[in-house]
Amino acid sequence: MAKVAVIMADGFEEIEALSVVDILRRADAEVSMVALSNNLEVSGAHGVTLKANVAFDEFEFKDIDMIVLPGGLPGAKHLAQSQKLAQKLREAKSNGKRLAAICAAPWAFSTAGVLGDEYTCYPGFEATINHAGYNPDKNVVINGNIITSRGPATAMEFALELVKELCGNQKYNEIKSGLLF
Length: 181
Description:
The protein is of the alpha/beta class. It has helices at residues 14-26, 75-81, 83-94, 106-112, 126-129, 155-167, 169-178, and strands spanning 3-8, 30-35, 41-43, 49-51, 54-55, 66-69, 98-102, 140-143, 146-149. The chain has a single domain, classed as Class I glutamine amidotransferase (GATase) domain (Rossmann fold), CATH 3.40.50. It is globular, with a radius of gyration of 15 Å.
């Protein structure tokens, strides 16, 4: 069973976080919603408050297969400014784990020095990310173990690609069909 950590900071984009959590759980992945702060109640960019499963400092990262970062502002800024997250991203990348980010969240990959040669993000936000290799033509870009996507409207496609990466084509097709996607 694939193990995934979805890191949530205040100001996260609700559609991006919940689509990933929901769709990966439908695929039988073990998904932990991890609060970047020690407060388990995390407020989204549009006023939806969720209760994370665990605080970042208490989460055991060694057994996970993937770290996912939802976008949204100011959530992505909090992710990009977190040194403790940057360290976990570098460790995960060096251990061959998958890293996924959507919307403005690839910014955290850039600041941590783990963003690949090709990526996508929310249109116009590539200037903030300030990293060569921006691809505006794909909704989801897979560059080695780094997976990025554009924004709220691409959240389901992004989540399904994560299912494909973690669980294979059969599970991907099953979940995609069940969602009428």
